[in-house]
Design brief:
5 helices, mainly alpha, globular, single chain
Length: 119
Protein backbone atom coordinates (compact mmCIF):
# COMPACT_ATOMS: atom_id res chain seq x y z
CA UNK A 1 0.00 0.00 0.00
CA UNK A 2 2.86 2.40 0.81
CA UNK A 3 4.34 1.84 -2.65
CA UNK A 4 1.04 2.69 -4.32
CA UNK A 5 0.65 5.86 -2.23
CA UNK A 6 4.21 6.95 -3.04
CA UNK A 7 3.65 6.18 -6.72
CA UNK A 8 0.44 8.23 -6.82
CA UNK A 9 1.90 11.24 -4.96
CA UNK A 10 5.03 11.22 -7.13
CA UNK A 11 2.83 11.00 -10.22
CA UNK A 12 0.71 13.93 -9.06
CA UNK A 13 3.82 16.06 -8.52
CA UNK A 14 5.14 15.13 -11.97
CA UNK A 15 1.74 15.85 -13.54
CA UNK A 16 1.62 19.28 -11.91
CA UNK A 17 5.09 20.06 -13.21
CA UNK A 18 4.09 18.89 -16.69
CA UNK A 19 1.03 21.15 -16.59
CA UNK A 20 3.27 24.07 -15.56
CA UNK A 21 5.56 23.35 -18.50
CA UNK A 22 2.73 23.15 -21.02
CA UNK A 23 0.37 25.87 -19.80
CA UNK A 24 2.84 28.57 -18.80
CA UNK A 25 5.80 30.21 -20.44
CA UNK A 26 8.09 29.04 -17.64
CA UNK A 27 11.26 27.42 -18.89
CA UNK A 28 12.34 24.07 -17.38
CA UNK A 29 15.17 25.71 -15.43
CA UNK A 30 12.75 28.09 -13.72
CA UNK A 31 10.41 25.24 -12.88
CA UNK A 32 13.33 23.34 -11.34
CA UNK A 33 14.21 26.38 -9.21
CA UNK A 34 10.54 26.67 -8.24
CA UNK A 35 10.54 23.05 -7.05
CA UNK A 36 13.72 23.51 -5.01
CA UNK A 37 12.34 26.69 -3.44
CA UNK A 38 9.06 24.90 -2.71
CA UNK A 39 11.00 22.21 -0.84
CA UNK A 40 12.79 24.91 1.16
CA UNK A 41 9.55 26.70 2.03
CA UNK A 42 7.73 23.48 2.95
CA UNK A 43 10.65 22.54 5.21
CA UNK A 44 10.81 26.00 6.77
CA UNK A 45 7.13 26.04 7.71
CA UNK A 46 7.26 22.45 8.98
CA UNK A 47 5.09 20.87 6.29
CA UNK A 48 7.67 18.86 4.35
CA UNK A 49 8.30 16.18 7.00
CA UNK A 50 4.58 15.39 7.55
CA UNK A 51 4.16 15.33 3.76
CA UNK A 52 7.14 12.97 3.47
CA UNK A 53 5.79 10.76 6.26
CA UNK A 54 2.45 10.55 4.46
CA UNK A 55 3.66 10.12 0.89
CA UNK A 56 6.95 8.31 1.43
CA UNK A 57 9.28 8.19 -1.56
CA UNK A 58 6.72 9.97 -3.74
CA UNK A 59 7.32 13.19 -1.83
CA UNK A 60 11.07 12.93 -1.97
CA UNK A 61 11.30 13.57 -5.69
CA UNK A 62 14.75 14.94 -6.25
CA UNK A 63 14.09 18.68 -6.47
CA UNK A 64 11.64 19.00 -3.57
CA UNK A 65 13.86 16.78 -1.46
CA UNK A 66 16.96 18.76 -2.42
CA UNK A 67 15.30 21.97 -1.30
CA UNK A 68 14.41 20.40 2.01
CA UNK A 69 17.99 19.15 2.49
CA UNK A 70 19.25 22.68 1.86
CA UNK A 71 16.82 24.04 4.45
CA UNK A 72 17.81 21.45 7.06
CA UNK A 73 21.50 22.17 6.50
CA UNK A 74 21.05 25.92 6.82
CA UNK A 75 18.87 25.58 9.92
CA UNK A 76 21.39 23.28 11.63
CA UNK A 77 24.36 25.47 10.68
CA UNK A 78 22.65 28.63 11.93
CA UNK A 79 21.89 26.86 15.22
CA UNK A 80 25.54 25.83 15.58
CA UNK A 81 27.50 28.69 13.97
CA UNK A 82 25.14 31.63 14.05
CA UNK A 83 24.50 33.86 11.06
CA UNK A 84 27.51 32.48 9.17
CA UNK A 85 25.59 29.22 8.90
CA UNK A 86 23.43 30.88 6.25
CA UNK A 87 26.38 30.71 3.88
CA UNK A 88 27.77 27.28 4.73
CA UNK A 89 24.87 25.11 5.86
CA UNK A 90 23.32 24.36 2.49
CA UNK A 91 26.67 23.46 0.95
CA UNK A 92 27.62 21.19 3.83
CA UNK A 93 24.30 19.35 3.85
CA UNK A 94 24.10 18.84 0.11
CA UNK A 95 27.77 18.34 -0.80
CA UNK A 96 27.48 14.58 -1.30
CA UNK A 97 24.44 14.90 -3.56
CA UNK A 98 25.91 17.71 -5.63
CA UNK A 99 29.25 15.92 -5.94
CA UNK A 100 27.66 12.66 -7.03
CA UNK A 101 25.47 14.47 -9.59
CA UNK A 102 28.55 16.12 -11.08
CA UNK A 103 30.62 12.94 -11.11
CA UNK A 104 27.91 10.72 -12.58
CA UNK A 105 26.95 13.42 -15.09
CA UNK A 106 30.56 13.60 -16.23
CA UNK A 107 30.83 9.80 -16.49
CA UNK A 108 27.60 9.69 -18.50
CA UNK A 109 28.96 12.35 -20.87
CA UNK A 110 32.05 10.19 -21.45
CA UNK A 111 30.01 7.05 -22.14
CA UNK A 112 27.31 8.60 -24.29
CA UNK A 113 27.50 11.16 -27.07
CA UNK A 114 25.35 14.08 -25.88
CA UNK A 115 23.88 16.30 -28.58
CA UNK A 116 21.76 19.40 -28.44
CA UNK A 117 18.30 19.10 -29.95
CA UNK A 118 17.70 21.15 -33.05
CA UNK A 119 14.38 22.94 -33.24
Amino acid sequence: MEFIKAFIIGGIICALVQILMEKTKLMPGRIMVLLVCTGVVLGAVGLYQPFLDFAGAGASVPLLGFGNVLWKGVREAVDNKGILGLFTGGFTASAAGISSALIFGYIASLIFNPKMKKK
